Amino acid sequence: MYGERVTFDEDGAVRMVVRPAHHWNIGNPSAALHLQRCGMWEIPIGVRENLALACHSSLVGASPDNRGMRLRRLRDNDVLEGDTSLVRGGELDPDILRADAQRYHDVYATYGISVFAVRGLSLEEMAQQVPLVRFHRMTIITARELAGYGLRLEPTGRNPRHYTVGFDDLEQGVKALISCAREVVTNPYHDG
Amino acid sequence: MEPEIDLIADLNAEDDEGLGWSTLSDARDTTQVRPGVMLVAGNRLAKAVVRVVAVDDDGQVHFMVMPGALEKNRRLIGRRALA
What we know:
The structure holds two protein chains of two kinds. Chain A is built from six helices and eight strands, in the order E-E-H-H-E-H-E-H-E-H-E-E-H-E. Chain A has helices spanning about 30-35, 50-55, 95-110, 125, 145-150, 170-180, and strands at about 5-10, 15, 85-90, 110-115, 135-140, 150-155, 160-165, 185. In chain A, the strands form two sheets. Chain A has a six-stranded antiparallel sheet with strand order 6-7-4-3-5-8. In chain A, helix 1 (about 30-35) crosses helix 2 (about 50-55) and helix 3 (about 95-110) packs across helix 6 (about 170-180). Chain A is globular, with a radius of gyration of 18 Å. Chain B has one domain (about 5-75). In chain B, about 5% of the residues lie in helices and about 35% in strands. Chain B has one helix at about 70-75, and strands spanning about 5-10, 20-25, 40-45, 45-55, 60-65. The radius of gyration of chain B is 11 Å and the shape is globular. The interface between A and B is medium-sized, with 33 and 31 residues.
């Protein structure tokens, strides 16, 4: 499923392409898998069997070898339909998006912005809960619209509604986000 | 008057456990950011009183957003939750 960037050497070693700006020492195949999923490239050295095991794991965690980099837990097989609405508290302010994406990068070494899929609960219900209740305005975008601008939707963390909009270039990613067709609504449950 | 922001954060952001998070480098005073302490987190789009749950070695700060309006929770700011 994510294997198109992986090659196997004859000795069973796993190799991936390196993005020049990053030179992490990843010796853990599950970490490699996470990097693939995030669209990031690395050269972990492992064995085919270990990678296969990692592919079946629902937990993608950092190993002690991965100092200076934190990995995210990705929910397996959690793919959104194109017409699913995603909501984010606040309007899409480029300066704030840039700061938030940079903060994400500082921790996870890739750019990301949090959104919530409107599923399982109505938007009205979600708007009454933390964190959306803290926002006076909410921005709604479809998954299809985000994908159309080349943005990744990563199912991150335990909250089944939480997704990270991922991208590799800060300015291009922010520009793509603010180019998306979207609806901005007032949150009637905002409690100040 | 609204209280100052102690920790700049995106209140949409969740860590893997569903907690809010930011980084120590976004704190107004890093010495105040300790587990159990209540402070104001957010940015100009949204603010909330939060309880710091953990501060990791790499500077990631995990917090829980307190229910209720900022104004109602103002009295909690700076307090340390009982263990």
